[in-house]
Design a protein that fits this description.
The chain is of the alpha/beta class and about 1050 residues long. It contains 38 helices and 29 strands. It has a 7-stranded parallel sheet. Helix 6 (about 120-140) packs across helix 14, helix 8 packs across helix 14 and helix 22 (about 490-505) packs across helix 23 (about 540-545). The longest helix has 28 residues, at about 190-215.
Length: about 1050
């Protein structure tokens, strides 16, 4: 029987009202929640009279398993095991679905509801919006025509994209109709506009306060006379009201005294930036001008909202006609049932003696409304507002915050705090408390950390089990890196820093606390984890760790759009359509080449070239296989997909590419999507277009990957790490800006600010309403990131190591509560800023490292693998390093470039053709080029440009090697590379590598050096290396 703390005991037995349990990291909340269930059973409540809601299905399964094991130890309650199987221990989505299915007749919909993926609905949503635009064009709606004139230049594609994005956001609102009506009926009323102007005045005053705070700090850098000169220069602007701001646009700061220190210059530059920012608001004019500008957006807003209303109505009708819904639809329907049917509310209310909600900090508005309608002063909520990190999914931490505040005063319920942490050593908790005492409070982070949320050390077993010569306090490793001097970017420096530290710790045989035995044991690689905010550098970690012989496992969800499988399936479907149409155009040839090269057929490039050249497609196995699929016009997507798998013997060929489990999961995911399309009666062409849409728009259809259980360092994102714990934790890649791309949206919807559209003031790109929204958005974003950082650090049991670039800092002011001034924390726009902000208070934990002693090298770019025997014992190391640039990588870069900027139609066309041109250049006969087979003039011109390059003027005198593959051994390492084009002359050899566009990249230089090293090792001839940009038509010698 576990020994519960006083607070845990209270959380287990307390009843009689709503209860909120604030359970800090490592406080044993899951154990408390499962024990509470047993307590209820022991007090005469059956397990199926409890509604237990969790955040994920995995958490629900774990909870049910915990309860089952506890009941197994209580033979007098064995009957509860039978009831457990039918008990509602589930996610909110699943419970809402059960309600809709049970009471479907009240909505006049079928009980056989199909839950479909959002991506499939999006395919139809685009068509619906296209049709609405066509209707409005035909109606010659004046307001709509004005909207087109205002926001469209060449076509309406961008406007449609922006409105579709807006529609999808508004559709997530549970009260979306009320929201639209409220904007139309109330937003432009004088009372609301005056409220906005009042907020704007407060906004401007905050800007002035920030300038005054900086002026006060100038005496740290300058003498009295210059500080007074600074203040006098700003005085007029600081005293000006909003109507007068535009009069001070010429205000300038006096020049800094000669010989001023760099820190002083930086301080003055920051003051100038703040001053310029304040002056810029004069562009909006007087308060009357601002009021008129807000009113001038009325027609635009109403026109857009009317489009949104028409769109939502048509989408809802489409879903009802086809009986398909997403989980967000189910939530809305379940609330509709409860709102309109008192008998259902009462039935559900009477069904459950208590409603228990885990991870309550992640509750959203929909869930809160739903629970409130079936509650009877019997809701038990467990969570930790400091770990609310899913705002991007719609979670609302203010729900927890408000209840916690109210229940603390016994208003509506009872509050219990579990602050004793049983996960981590004292030093770890002390370090975390010191950081968040300074940066988290109710305004930024949503919790008064220092006052009520500091973690208390609970696991005293650590006291006797520790290494006497080991420093358990956290380390902040700072480095100075100038890429122009070192040749390495910050990510590489950080990876080598972490790798070196892990190797040193393993070499020194550090010991960690074993939770099972409560004793120290020697650390293994499994005891180390690297936690990052994003997965951008995961592959680089993998390469460097492999190079350094450190086993590493990446823990992340897979994304279907990033896999080669979806490209292959899309190309196969496209090929089948072309065969059916007897259309052997360029797209057919591209599909044929792509599929022929794949693991399904493994055709050589020579065979593919000969087939395309002779047009003998029908003689190939590939063509015969897919032409055997008949009647595709009456086949469903699912039937066609199954035919493809059968004809190609897909599953049995997976052994050729390895990673069977994950590939199998991806194929099963595509199979489910094809079944959903079949349910909707969509055609094979729709299936092809849908796959293409997933690829082009990079829709994130995720699947759970399989990972190795071997002894290895783990790397994962902060979000993925939630709920996990590790002895030694590294944190890196902190020095990048928070993602605020949402602020760039043309149209923004917000409950407080309505529908935000661009200002009508000339030469002003934003608007006062958007500035107010931006202020709130940034504040919420920083709050979320503070909580995210808290989640990251609380994963550590025994040691934290933070790695970041070195930066000069100044001591930030604290408020009366001992927290860094909010005005300072509102400037924290990187995770690294949190640590820089506390540096002058916790400087003894910061240590400088010398990057020249890290053993930095680019050799890791040649991937290394270790040969392993069948019995899993390692034989003599055989290191294989690859210099291999595959077409799918080029293709990935191609799609990435499209997504990183708004491209014109012509630019997108060029990028699409780029990959095809690369393949032609691999297949062409350079001595006797026959371009007559190339039907596309653009492709033909690009190839002619390359053939006419001066570098190839003597090509007929050379020996030509296409896709030259080589292996060689050096220093007990085997190298493997594939050279796009190699020309061997009597006196020298030219190596040419094709790139789509960019030829300025250090990685390319290292790859070509690898090629050069090998060729020089087998010949006495001079070797030249070149990169050729297909799209830019230029060549660069490396």
């Amino acid at each position: 029987m576990p020994k519960w703390t006083k607070e845990q005991e209270e959380a287990i037995v307390k009843s009689g009202s709503n209860i909120i349990v604030s359970a800090g990291a490592g406080s044993g909340k899951t154990a408390v929640l499962s024990e509470r269930v047993i307590n209820k059973i022991q007090n005469g409540i059956h397990v199926n009279e409890l509604l237990i809601l969790t955040f994920t299905r995995a958490a629900a399964d774990e909870m049910k398993d915990r309860i089952r094991k506890k009941i197994d130890k209580l033979p007098e309650f064995k009957d509860e095991l039978t009831l457990l199987s039918s008990a509602y221990i589930t996610t909110f989505d699943s419970f809402a679905l059960s309600v809709v299915k049970k009471y479907h007749y009240l909505l006049n919909i079928s009980s056989n509801i199909a839950i479909t993926d959002e991506s499939i609905v999006k395919l139809e949503q685009k068509k619906i919006l296209d049709n609405i635009f066509e209707e409005l064009y035909k109606e010659k709606n004046e307001n709509f025509i004005n909207l087109i004139k205002k926001y469209c230049i060449k076509n309406d594609k961008s406007l449609k994209t922006n409105i579709l994005s807006l529609c999808n956001k508004i559709s997530d609102y549970i009260d979306r109709d009320d929201f639209i009506d409220d904007v139309i009926n109330n937003f432009y009323e004088e009372k609301n506009i005056n409220n906005l102007l009042t907020k704007y005045k407060e906004f401007i005053n905050d800007k002035k306060k920030e300038i005054m705070l900086e002026l006060d700090n100038m005496n740290m850098y300058f003498d009295y006379d210059y500080c007074m000169a600074l203040q006098n220069s700003c005085l007029g602007l600081l005293n000006a009201d909003i109507d007068e701001l535009h009069l001070y646009e010429s205000v300038k700061l006096p020049s800094a005294p000669r010989g001023s220190e760099e820190e002083a210059k930086a301080a003055k530059a920051n003051l100038k930036k703040l001053l310029d920012d304040l002056k810029s608001y004069g562009d909006y004019g007087t308060l009357e001008d601002i009021k008129n500008d807000i009113l001038s957006t009325k027609e635009t807003v109403f026109t857009i909202l009317n489009i949104v209303k028409r769109y939502l109505s048509k989408v809802e009708q489409y879903k009802q006609d086809n009986n398909i819904y997403t989980f967000s639809d189910i939530s809305r329907l379940s609330i509709k049932i409860l709102k309109e049917n008192e008998s259902v509310r009462n039935e559900l209310r009477d069904s459950f003696k208590e409603i228990m909600i885990d991870e309550y900090q992640d509750t959203n508005d929909v869930q809160d409304i739903f629970i409130s309608m079936i509650a009877n002063d019997n809701v038990y909520m467990v969570g930790d507002i400091k770990q609310s990190i899913y705002r991007f999914r719609g979670s609302n931490p203010n729900i927890f915050k408000e209840k916690y505040s109210n229940y603390s005063c016994n208003n509506g319920g009872y509050k219990i705090d579990l602050i004793k942490n049983f996960r981590s050593r004292f030093e770890v908790l002390d370090n975390i408390n010191k950081v968040f005492d300074l940066i988290m409070d109710s305004n930024l982070g949503s919790a008064e950390y220092k006052e009520t949320h500091e973690m208390v050390y609970g696991n005293t077993a650590y006291d006797t089990e520790k290494m006497n010569d080991f420093d358990y306090d956290f380390e902040v490793l700072e480095y100075m890196n100038n890429k122009k001097e070192t040749g390495f970017d910050n990510s590489e420096v950080e990876i080598f820093t972490i790798a070196k530290d892990i190797k040193n710790k393993m070499k020194n045989k550090i010991k960690v606390f074993d939770k099972e035995t409560s004793k120290l044991r020697e650390a293994t690689y499994n005891d180390f984890v690297i936690i990052l905010d994003r997965s951008k550098y995961f592959d680089t970690y993998k390469k460097i760790f492999e190079y350094l012989d450190i086993p590493l496992t990446i823990l992340k969800d897979g994304k279907l759009n990033a896999s080669t499988d979806i490209y292959l399936i899309k190309n196969i479907v496209d090929l089948i359509i072309h065969i059916n149409e007897n259309n052997f155009n360029e797209e057919f040839k591209y599909d044929f080449t792509s599929i022929g090269r794949s693991f399904l057929y493994e055709y050589t490039d020579e065979y593919i070239f000969d087939t395309i050249n002779s047009k003998n497609y029908k003689d190939t196995t590939l063509y015969k296989d897919f032409s055997s699929i008949k009647n595709i016009n009456i086949k469903t997507s699912s039937e066609l997909f199954n035919d493809i798998l059968d004809i190609t013997d897909f599953y049995n060929k997976l052994y050729k590419i390895g990673d069977y489990e994950n590939t199998n999961v991806r194929i099963e995911t595509i199979s489910k999507l094809s079944s959903s399309l079949s349910t909707l009666g969509l055609s094979i062409i729709d299936f092809r277009d849908y796959l293409n849409e997933i690829i082009e728009t990079k829709q994130e259809i995720k699947y759970t990957t399989f990972s190795s259980n071997s002894d290895s360092v783990k790397i994962l994102t902060i979000h993925k790490s939630k709920g996990l714990e590790y002895p030694v934790c590294y944190f890196a890649d902190l020095d990048h800006e928070f993602n605020t791309s949402e602020l760039k949206d043309k149209f923004i919807c917000d409950k407080s600010y309505g529908l935000i559209v661009p200002s009508n003031i000339e030469e002003v790109t934003s608007s006062v309403v958007k500035e107010l929204y931006k202020k709130d958005f940034i504040k919420e974003e920083i709050s979320e990131k503070i909580r995210l950082f808290y989640v990251a650090l609380t994963r550590a049991r025994e040691k934290m190591i933070i790695v970041l670039p070195e930066k000069e800092t100044k001591k930030l002011e604290k408020n009366d509560n001992g927290v860094i001034e909010e005005i300072r924390r509102l400037k924290f726009m990187k995770l690294s800023d949190f640590m820089y902000g506390v540096k002058d208070y916790l400087g003894n934990y910061f240590k400088s490292i010398d990057v020249t002693k890290l053993g930095l090298t680019k050799d890791y770019q040649y991937s290394k693998s270790i040969n392993i025997k069948e019995n899993n014992t390692i034989t003599d190391d055989i290191n294989v390093e690859e210099i291999n640039i595959q077409n799918d990588i080029i293709e990935d870069k191609h799609f990435s470039k499209e997504s990183n900027k708004v491209s014109t139609k012509e630019e997108i066309k060029m990028m699409n053709y780029g990959t095809k041109i690369h393949e032609y250049l691999e297949l062409i006969d350079y001595k006797n080029p026959n371009l007559s087979l190339i039907e596309d003039n653009f492709i033909k011109t690009k190839i002619e440009k390359f053939l006419n390059n001066s570098l190839l003027e003597n090509i007929k005198d050379s020996n030509i090697y296409h896709e030259y593959e080589f292996f060689y051994e050096k220093d007990n390492t085997n190298y493997h590379g594939i050279i796009d084009l190699m020309l061997e002359y009597d006196s020298h050899i030219d190596i040419i590598d094709f790139k789509l566009k960019n030829v300025v990249d250090d990685n390319y230089k290292n790859q070509l050096n690898g090629y050069k090293n090998y060729i020089e090792s087998i010949t006495n001839k001079k070797v030249n290396t070149y990169l050729y940009s297909i799209l830019n038509e230029d060549i660069k010698e490396i």
